[in-house]
Amino acid sequence: MTQENNTPIALTALQKRVAREVIAYVRHERLPVGHHLAESHLARALNTSRTPVKFVLNHLAERGMLRHDRNRGFFLARAADDLNDLVLEIAAAEENSVYLKFVELRLSRQLPEHLGEIDLMREFGVSRTELRSVLLRMQQEGWAEQRSGQGWRLLPVIDSIEAYEESFSFRVTIEPAGLLSPTFQVDQKVLALCRQQQEYIAATGYLSMTTQELFEANSKFHEILAGFSGNRFLLQSLKRLNGLRRLVEYSVDLPRPTRRKQVLEHLQILDLIERGDRLGAADRLRAHLEGARRNKLNPALLERLGLQSED
């Protein structure tokens, strides 16, 4: 799996994404050294096939993160807190990826509504395999769809100040309501794992985690609460919105103290839920979302993101 000069073989776009998600999974779950990482479990957790997972596990074993036993599989060889170098390495590899070029062009409205694979292969200088992995990721995140025999079509995304603000307004409407749903039921095991992750981020994780990792952890927190609502449509709506937010918020680098304050608010919401005070939790969640809206809808940040008004 290495070249003759002993440098690692370059990962494909899909493999880079899976590698990032495997590392993020280890860090989020606070897995201990020696933990067994099963291919089948990771494939389910990351919603991908076992083929790229297996390749990535071998790659991470070569990078020293994992230990491979031929008869038993892969085991974590480095502590979750000791993976910053690999996180930065994968992030740097993704900086010039075809996916991020698509994101940049989409947010700046430089892509046509309908896309043909042959034209895209020529424009980006990539193989059909690499291009399709990117297009399928876009489809999974909810901002592209495949048209039968007619290429691909782009779907609406958060590409303006108005759309960004509307996304927060929608969340303020549905998320607190989910906590007050008559079908609301807490999964204590899930809640405990959620608290563990949030406490780690509040303690030290917010200092070392990448913007992408922090976004994914934040999205997971809100989706867990939506899942407790027992309303499948609420959860599906939030997951789709988070997929669209991802395009913008991977670039939102808030000050670290602000990130920590948001996580402390998450823990306050969990405290209220554990005490059975769902009304208080809903009010705190509403205030939390309004605070996030104020932090992110400021002129300086919007200018850095390149979001403009629709007028």
Automatic annotation (TrEMBL):
**Keyword Lipid metabolism applies:** no
* SUPFAM superfamilies on file: GntR ligand-binding domain-like (SSF48008), Winged helix' DNA-binding domain (SSF46785)
Which Pfam families does the entry mention? FCD, GntR
Instruction: Write the record's keywords in alphabetical order, separated by commas.
Output: DNA-binding, Transcription, Transcription regulation
User: Domain of life, per the record?
Assistant: Bacteria
**Which GO molecular function annotations are given, in alphabetical order?**
DNA binding; DNA-binding transcription factor activity
- In this protein, which residues make up the domain named HTH gntR-type? 12-79
Q: Which PROSITE patterns match?
A: HTH_GNTR
Instruction: Show the PANTHER family listed in the entry.
Output: TRANSCRIPTIONAL REGULATOR, GNTR FAMILY (PTHR43537), TRANSCRIPTIONAL REGULATORY PROTEIN (PTHR43537:SF49)
Specify the protein name.
DNA-binding transcriptional regulator, GntR family
Q: Which organism is it from?
A: Phytopseudomonas flavescens
